[in-house]
Amino acid sequence: xxxxxxxxxxxxxxxxxxxxxxxxxxxxxxxxxxxxxxxxxxxxxxxxxxxxxxxxxxxxxxxxxxxxxxxxxxxxxxxxxxxxxxxxxxxxxxxxxxxxxxxxxxxxxxxxxxxxxxxxxxxxxxxxxxxxxxxxxxxxxxxxxxxxxxxxxxxxxxxxxxxxxxxxxxxxxxx
Length: 175
Ligand code: S3P
Hints:
By secondary structure, the chain is α/β, with parallel strands linked by helices. The protein has helices spanning 15-26, 33-41, 45-52, 54-71, 89-94, 108-117, 131-149, 163-174; strands spanning 4-8, 30-32, 76-78, 99-105, 154-157. Strands 2-3-1-4-5 form a 5-stranded parallel beta sheet. Helix 1 packs across helix 8 (163-174), helix 3 packs across helix 4 (54-71) and helix 6 crosses helix 7. The longest helix has 19 residues, at 131-149. The N and C termini lie close together (6 Å).
């Protein structure tokens, strides 16, 4: 495996968990873009959204990713759910021959179940009052975002699969 693996997918699709598992399998570093932004800004994602707004967040998110891509060699990088949908990010990723983009696809139901439990700290969805509103929001949001997600080099269905199953399936696709 001679590429940086970049994990793409909606909030709650398992990017960080599967990213860590893949990094362990390949014995390469794992980088979580949200965590890098938190370190850089010394604030939670929620506070960045509240204090500086989403546009500011999207700008630093894009810059931070470009910086990681330019400085790091082999690694697994998990993006934020919105990262590939802003600026020319997905084109930058897919035109880089050292990058392999993987879309972790999960059903609206799976995402809704997972996200409802941790809705509080997520600035894009914390205003939604119940599961039905969350499910409707995800359905609409995914409809817009799937256009970008579907441009990934590899699309893997993760519903009803364990973390190790998803990781080993990505591995066998890569090697
Ligand atoms: C966002 C997803 C979050 C984080 C921010 C915005 C989004 O990342 O970047 O809250 O727009 O989907 P995760 O997908 O890692 O939760």
